Amino acid sequence: MQVKGFLRNGLIPLSIFAAVFLIYSLNLYTDFRSGDYRRLLPSGDAVPNTFLPYILLKDKTFIFDEQVQHLRRFENWVTDPAFLVRINGHYYSAYPPLTGILAVPFYFIPLVIGKVPDIGNLYYLMKVLYLGRIAASFYTSLSAVFVYFALLKISSLSKLKNNKLWVILFTLFYALGTCSWSISSRGLWQHTVAELLVSIMVYLFVGLYLSKVSARIVCAVGLIAGLAVLARPTNILLAVALMLYFYAYKREYFFNFVAGVLPSALFFLIYNYAVFGSPFMEGYGARGDFRWSTPIFNGLMGFLFSPARSFLFVSPPLVLSYCGIVKTFKDKNFGGKFNIALRFLSVSFIAAVLLFSKWYTWHGGSGFGYRMLTDFLPIVVILAYLVFMNFSRFAKLGVIILMLYSAYIQFNAVNNHYSRCGSNHNWDFYCLAPRSL
């Protein structure tokens, strides 16, 4: 009976993971053999977490001093690359280290058996990038599995019938028709682990409504939310939204949630004090990179209508999430028992869009598509799915066609543009065109 249960409940998610990981990996070897590191490294922002596992295992430190001479190649050999910050004569990552820490298991065996002895050699440096891609693809594929389970759970809460095929379809869309493919799976960005953690958090959060609320599960939701902030600090918007939800609607579990967040908060404060000299200073602040200079209207219009940066042109089915946000507040039956929780998740997403709209690189620099919003994709996909399930058969067919278009855009981004899109193309269709950089 247990074997049958596993085959019935476990085969589909395992198949999703295997299929998605395989697709993510199809061009990995050719990218490596090309000798062009740009094919394996989507941006300099991914450098610190890609090489941190190597430094942790080889040098037993968070300090990049021994390897910075080799990493300067990723920023035209400047003395102080933007992805590192120099503190008291030592080089540290300018970005949170959690993504790199969690990638250590993928580097361990190759480094132990001497397959990557010295990144001063371009061939060995490419091997590190290769390992980083494997880790990123693994974690993004795993994220798709948790989105699958979360969609099943929210389908049950919303009493949606005959939904498993639609759940599989939306899970594959999440994995292959969004920036999960062109961003998270392509390198060890902050987004990679943050998106995985958000998908786990949503899965656990939805699960609270399917059974008796457990203090341990609430604590786990807090733990994962805290880790998501460690992976990418702007996810504090999501953590705060959840904290407010538990305070307002599940107050007896509020301190369980806070207890879950506490370990990440302590790590954040201790790490920042040890590296930057103050518990409240981090990499962005240390390099003076807090610039909120974009007029918020300009950034918002970019996220809504830019050919290169908006859901509308890059992943059109995600536009349904905007309708989902409206329905969440207008229809108390939307999302079933999860309606109130969806409101808080929706507000966190709206707050993130407004925040990033003010950021001086609202467009995500050279990253492809709506890179800055990638962390929120598990939430956005759930909102879009709930709207989609109320469509007629004909309307669903139209959305499926748009899903295929979205998958093509991601395929093109990965294979022809190497997951890059320069900010000079924010308002044209160059980055969506089938051509190589």
Automatic annotation (TrEMBL):
The chain crosses the membrane at residues 12-30, 94-114, 134-152, 164-183, 189-210, 217-247, 253-276, 341-362, 368-387, 394-411. The keyword Transmembrane helix applies. Keywords: Membrane, Transmembrane, Transmembrane helix. The keyword Transmembrane applies. This is Glycosyltransferase RgtA/B/C/D-like domain-containing protein. It comes from candidate division WWE3 bacterium CG23_combo_of_CG06-09_8_20_14_all_40_14. The lineage of its organism: Bacteria, Katanobacteria.
